[in-house]
């Protein structure tokens, strides 16, 4: 394969990127000044070195110093609630909306409806551990903030069923986002008002 085909193959690994879009990216880079391409390559190389994954909430964050826990987990925010989202972009959407002031947990995605091994697709074991840790710090509510689509619904049901025994023993309430998110909507594309309404009317 040519260099164009090789690079296109890498771009096709990106979420939602098909063959045509991948080729457009490659030809875009070919049309740019060499300095732009060099700077882009340098930033990509720095990404893994400057960004770490929090060992508590599992979000990616700028690793500016020592320690393995992000600034949100160590901040003086409400420890009574834990908002469970699918991915980092969902976390960013909620943060921008200023509608929630508690702790977070990144689930790592959703579960395909026909998946035979659901636990392998999300961080369910890590979530159980985080809840047990949170219980010692006053955690009283876990909020499932997942997308309003078939995979999100299936994941929500699986997580709720898995957490039920532990939450019951610890006396922790499980809630989900209320009306506000339209069916088929992914959390990261919801506007601030919609997120605030959904959080306010959780049940």
Provide a quick synopsis of the model.
With 203 residues, the chain is an alpha/beta fold. It contains eight helices and six strands. The chain has a domain of 125 residues: Dna Topoisomerase Vi A Subunit, Chain: A, domain 2 (3-Layer(aba) Sandwich).
Structure in words:
It is a single chain. This protein is globular. Helix 7 (150-170) links the parallel strand 5 (141-144) and strand 6 (173-176). The protein has helices at 3-11, 19-30, 34-50, 71-74, 88-97, 124-135, 150-170, 192-200; strands at residues 51-53, 60-62, 81-85, 103-106, 141-144, 173-176. The longest helix is centred in the last third of the chain and has 21 residues, at 150-170. It is of the alpha/beta class and 203 residues long. The chain has a domain at 76-200: Dna Topoisomerase Vi A Subunit, Chain: A, domain 2, CATH 3.40.1360. The mean pLDDT is 89. It is built from eight helices and six strands. The strands form two sheets. A four-stranded parallel beta sheet has the order 4-3-5-6. Strands 1-2 form a two-stranded antiparallel ribbon. Helix 5 (88-97) packs across helix 8 and helix 6 runs parallel beside helix 7 (150-170).
């Amino acid at each position: 394969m040519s260099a164009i085909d090789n690079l296109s193959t890498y771009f096709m690994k990106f979420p939602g990127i098909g063959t045509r879009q991948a080729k457009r990216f490659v030809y875009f880079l070919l049309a740019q000044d060499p300095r732009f391409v060099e700077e882009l390559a340098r930033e990509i190389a720095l990404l893994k070195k400057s960004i770490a994954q929090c060992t508590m909430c599992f979000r990616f964050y700028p690793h500016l110093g020592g320690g393995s826990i992000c600034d949100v987990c160590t901040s003086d925010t409400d420890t009574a609630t834990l908002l469970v989202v699918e991915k980092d972009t969902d976390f960013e959407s909620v943060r921008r909306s200023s509608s929630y002031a508690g702790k977070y947990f990144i689930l790592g995605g959703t579960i395909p409806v026909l998946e035979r091994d659901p636990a392998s697709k999300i961080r369910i074991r890590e979530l159980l551990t985080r809840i047990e840790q949170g219980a010692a710090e006053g955690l009283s509510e876990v909020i499932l903030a997942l997308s309003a689509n078939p995979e999100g619904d299936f994941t929500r049901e699986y997580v709720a069923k898995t957490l039920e025994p532990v939450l019951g023993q610890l006396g922790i309430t499980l809630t989900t986002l209320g009306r506000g998110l339209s069916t088929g909507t992914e959390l990261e594309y919801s506007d601030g008002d919609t997120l605030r309404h959904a959080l306010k009317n959780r049940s």
